[in-house]
């Protein structure tokens, strides 16, 4: 028992140090550090699975105090809202074996609300949250334009670029909430996939948990929301069009995850090589059209039920 408590204390301190390092990497490395900081909830979830809920809470408290001492109380509160609460929900969802759809959607919602809260906290626009979001999008566009200018991509003429830049700015301002939530959904799904892989790999060290394969299946009635959002977008009225566009982006993200689940099922069904799966993921990263194709597969699964089709078995296997 003494050894167990000592191991828990050491791992809590180690988890806090790792998370503080991940958060600091966001400032040290402009692009890579942002992706590394997204891994902050993972050590807390592993600590919860290994030592229980109290270890998770104590590690969160220790990390919050460290961030407050090294940075500011505001940054500590932002960390707790943006990463601490999602870590708790993620850990409990995996511990109890909840459906991936519920866990990912809940964690994605917390990541979105936490991220928006951090934007408002950083801008001091408590009474005007939409202005805080607009300022953030404007900064992102300014950084993107400066980056393209350094690459020499803005020397083809000011007028065309101004026109396209204006349209891009208007579109991003209108679609930012949906894009932010869809990105949070994909981040939450990445957490679940990574942690499930770690749980299968080190099941003996994580309370003997062995999760089921990632299976994503949305309710069939959700397709009517997709159709309704499309109708709202086609009305052309500014507010209805903005609402329809954001709902469409969120639903495309949800159906994209369903399409990935179907693709993983088909890869296992036909025993395709893992290298082909890795190449497919790379194609999805560099070819946005394929992302829409995968989302379309997830959407049409409502009518075709691809995972229930009587597909032929591969030769030599039963």
Describe this entry's structure for a reader:
The protein is mostly helical and 318 residues long. The chain folds into two domains: 1-127 and 179-211; 215-318, no CATH class. The protein has helices spanning 2-28, 32-37, 41-51, 53-70, 73-95, 100-123, 129-150, 158-201, 222-234, 238-269, 274-286, 288-304. The radius of gyration is 22 Å and the shape is globular. 28% of the residues are buried. Residues 155-163 and 314-318 have low confidence and may be disordered.
Which features does this protein show?
318 residues, mainly alpha, 2 domains, 12 helices, disordered C terminus
Q: Largest sheet, if any?
A: none
- Count of distinct structural domains: 2
Q: Based on CA inertia axes, which overall geometry fits?
A: globular
From the alpha carbons, calculate the radius of gyration and give it in angstroms: 22 Å
Number of separate strands: 0
How many helices? The count is 12
Structural class: mainly alpha
Poorly predicted ranges (pLDDT <50, ≥5 residues)? Answer: 155-163, 314-318
Proportion of helical residues: over 70%
Average pLDDT confidence is: 82
- Separation of the first and last Cα atoms: 48 Å
Strand content: under 5%
């Amino acid at each position: 028992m003494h050894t167990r408590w000592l191991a828990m204390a050491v791992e809590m301190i180690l988890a806090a140090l790792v998370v503080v390092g991940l958060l600091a990497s966001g400032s040290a490395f402009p692009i890579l550090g942002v992706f590394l900081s997204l891994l902050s909830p993972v050590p807390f979830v592993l600590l919860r699975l290994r030592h229980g809920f109290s270890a998770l809470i104590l590690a969160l408290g220790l990390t919050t105090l460290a961030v407050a001492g090294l940075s500011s109380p505001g940054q500590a509160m932002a960390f707790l809202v943006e990463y601490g609460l999602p870590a708790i929900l993620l850990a409990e969802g995996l511990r109890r074996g909840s459906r991936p759809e519920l866990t990912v959607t809940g964690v994605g919602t917390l990541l979105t609300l936490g991220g928006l809260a951090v934007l408002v906290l950083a801008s001091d626009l408590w009474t005007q949250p939409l202005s805080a979001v607009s300022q953030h999008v404007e900064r992102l566009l300014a950084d993107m334009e400066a980056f393209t200018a350094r690459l020499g991509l803005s020397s083809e003429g000011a007028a065309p670029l101004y026109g396209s830049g204006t349209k891009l700015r208007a579109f991003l301002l209108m679609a930012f909430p949906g894009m932010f939530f869809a990105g949070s959904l994909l981040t939450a799904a990445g957490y679940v996939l990574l942690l499930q892989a770690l749980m299968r790999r080190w099941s003996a060290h994580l309370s003997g948990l062995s999760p089921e394969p990632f299976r994503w299946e949305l309710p069939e009635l959700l397709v009517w929301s997709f159709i309704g959002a499309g109708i709202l977008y086609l009305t052309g009225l500014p507010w209805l069009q903005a609402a329809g566009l954001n709902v469409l982006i969120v639903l495309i993200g949800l159906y994209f995850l369903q399409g990935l689940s179907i693709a993983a099922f088909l890869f296992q069904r036909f025993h395709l090589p893992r290298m082909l799966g890795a190449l497919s993921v790379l194609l999805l990263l560099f070819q946005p059209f394929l992302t829409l194709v995968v989302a379309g597969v997830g959407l049409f699964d409502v009518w075709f039920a691809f995972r229930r089709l009587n597909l032929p078995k591969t030769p030599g296997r039963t």
